[in-house]
Amino acid sequence: KSNEGGAYTREGVATTEIERDEAKPVNLEEYSSAKELQALGLDRLKAALQVRGLKCGGKLEDRAERLFAVKGITPKDYPAKLLAKKVKKN
Question: Are the beta carbons of 45 and 65 closer than 8 angstroms?
Fold first, then answer.
């Protein structure tokens, strides 16, 4: 359903606002625990993990813990067990 401005809405919030929030990079320095990261939701956590090259499956808690585990760590120092497997291109 669209509102007066022509933007479609989802749960009363303009879709463009939702998309803008989901596209914003997650700054881990703004979070003090994995529990706080859970508020971002499954999709946003998945996107944040993928951007960092980390495994992105699992439950909400798993994703939040995995993302929080790399707070303050440079990508080259990410633990191997958290990294997503490289996809082989033919």
Answer: no
Q: CA-to-CA distance for 89 and 10, rounded, in angstroms?
A: 37
Instruction: Give the integer Cα–Cα distance in Å for 60 and 42.
Output: 6
* Buried residues in 48-87 as b, exposed as e (16+ CB within 10 A): bbeebebebeeeeeebbbbbbbbeeeeeeeeeeebeeeee
Which strand (E) or helix (H) includes residue 69?
helix 60-69
The predicted-structure confidence for 52-88, as pLDDT tens digits, reads as follows: 999 999 999 999 999 999 999 999 999 999 999 987 7
Helix axes of 42-51 and 60-69: crossing angle, nearest 10 degrees: 30
- How many CB atoms are located within 10 Å of the residue 20 CB? 10
